Structures are given as structure tokens and as C-alpha cells.
């Protein structure tokens, strides 16, 4: 059986991590045995990988001792596993995958996975600038660069990344198990949300790309307009311990309408309780949260970034980025629709994910890619 070493930045709770879990826990693992290497130990979805029987290793790059020991540990790991395929996952993971490929002592198939869209230099955190530049220089080494969205592929080309062997492979969504109405009722009781109050949810992160200040301003305008809803905000940095976020909500005067849940590992349960799934991002590639919401029959209202408009289609509402007034108006517009129409649109969203973005089709694509022969020299295109 061929062996695949996936190299990812961390196993925190995020869309890229869930996409990797979907892939390695799929039937593809019966043909290509997966091993996962995380560069940094972050509490997240390690338990789910363990439950799926996937070996997980960590390089401990969160402190200087780990950084000093990392090259030797990586060399030993690669020589021990002897992978036939090395698949980088996210920018930092892609760079480490090149080093693993060099340490392999042979020439396994080298793949990069791009799960981010660098829309503009001003939207990038400073520490990512060097990573992007190194990635541009090293992008001639992979046999394939796999992008989860067309917009991500376009932006990386504009930044000078090699394009001769790039391919768009959207995230695949596994069939969702129907969650009973009791799940929705239990979560509402847990959070103290009345049955008649609509829930608008966002599984996101407190980072510049997600534009949380824009989201908070939209909530303020929505509430100020006399609309009622409870906003569930979950994810990294979205907890009550984030003083910056707490100050934003207090200044906006809408803290009573918001529940800050922080990092949660029950995303399916949260989504099942939502009436609307939303993102206010200023840049995205293929946000798995929205696709998972659609797969559960929850309609989406989101900003027009990445490939969001393409995969949501007519099943939800799209607004310009950095336009809180239009985002607030879209929420109000959606909740004003008759319940039967909202239900029909939710069913249409389910069908769209099932027909266009199902995991089985993605697995077939990966199977074809894994069967390709590695290049003998880096591409100079």
C-alpha cells in the first residue's frame, strides 16, 4: 500500500483541518495509508484523527527548542515512514513539505495544498509576508499545486507562483447525518435563547481576514433597525476571554444579542441550531463552514470573496465585502421570507452541495492525482 505524509501547520479547529480529516478518514485511506505531521501543537481536532486511526506527529515549533530539534526530527520521521507521496497543507505546511521531500532520499510525489487567498498585502499579517515570498520561490518544486478555489489560484498566479501544474480541487463535503429537532432545542436551552428568536451563526476566527469588526458593525445596524436575532460566534479568538472583541461588542451596544462560544468541537450541533449561517470575511478561499451549513440545509448570507458566490449560487444571499449595512440588510431580508421559502432554499442548498461538492467526487480526483508520476526536476514554468 502506498503511503502519504500530510504536512499541516496545526490541527486547530478550522476549515482546512476539517477538510484534511474528511480526506484521510475516507475510503481513500484503504489505498493510500495516511500519516499526518503538524508543525505546531494546538488543541483542536487531534482526537478526531485518533478516533479515525490516523497516526499524528508534531514538530513542536511553538518554542525555540522545538525549532532547533525540528530538522533532525523531520529527517528521522521521513526516513522511518518512507512516504510515496508528501502532501503539504496550508502555506507553512507546504514549505515544510519541501524540506521533507528533500530529506526523503528518493523522489516521492510532492503536492501542495492552498487553503488561503492572499487578496492584498494590506490584508496579510506581517509574519506571513516571508512565507508567501518563500512559497513563490519554492513553488517550482511541487508536482502539483492544488487550490481549493479559483480565486486562490488566480491570486497566487498574480503573486508569481508557478502555474504550469496547478489545479482547483474544492473541499469535499461528506453526507450529513440528519440531526433531530432535539439538538436544536437542547442548544437553545443551553444558551438561553427563546424558541421564537432566530439564530444567526458564524464559525470563524478573530483574525484580520475574517473582518470581525465589520461583523460586529453589521450586528449593531441589524439590532438598531429593530430586528431580533441571537448571534452565535464561535472559533479561535471568539470567546469571552478576548477583551478586544468584548470591547467591540460593548461599544456597539449589542452584547446582549451575541453569544461568544470560543473554540467548539461540536460544529455540527451548532450548525443544526442556526437559521442562517454567515461570514463577513474580507478574503477567503473555500470556507468549509458555509459548505457544511448548506449540507445541513442551513442557508448562507456572506460576503463576495473567494469562491463563495460560486458555490452558494442562488440558495443564499451575497453582499459586497466591508459593507456592514448591506450585510445587516441581507440578514433582515432573509429572516423576513416566509418559512416555507426559507425551507425550500435550504433544501436547494443541500442539493447543490450533494450534486457539486460531494466528498466522493473529490476522492476520485485525489486518487487520479496520487497515481501521477513525480517530476524528475522542478518545473521552471
Descriptive key words:
13 strands, alpha/beta, 7-stranded parallel beta sheet, 2 domains, globular, 381 residues, single chain, 15 helices, Rossmann fold, 6-stranded parallel beta sheet
Descriptive overview:
With 381 residues, the chain is an alpha/beta fold. It has helices at 15-24, 46-51, 64-81, 91-103, 126-138, 150-158, 181-191, 212-224, 243-252, 267-272, 288-295, 308-312, 324-335, 339-356, 359-370, and strands spanning 2-10, 32-40, 56-58, 85-89, 109-114, 144-147, 166-168, 199-203, 230-234, 258-262, 276-279, 300-303, 317-319. The protein has 2 domains: 2-172 and 359-370, Glycogen Phosphorylase B (Rossmann fold); 181-356, 3-Layer(aba) Sandwich (Rossmann fold), CATH 3.40.50. The chain contains 15 helices and 13 strands. The strands form 2 sheets. Strands 3-2-1-4-5-6-7 form a 7-stranded parallel β-sheet, with helices on both faces. A 6-stranded parallel β-sheet has the order 10-9-8-11-12-13, with helices on both faces. α8 (212-224) packs parallel to α9 and α8 (212-224) crosses α13 (324-335).
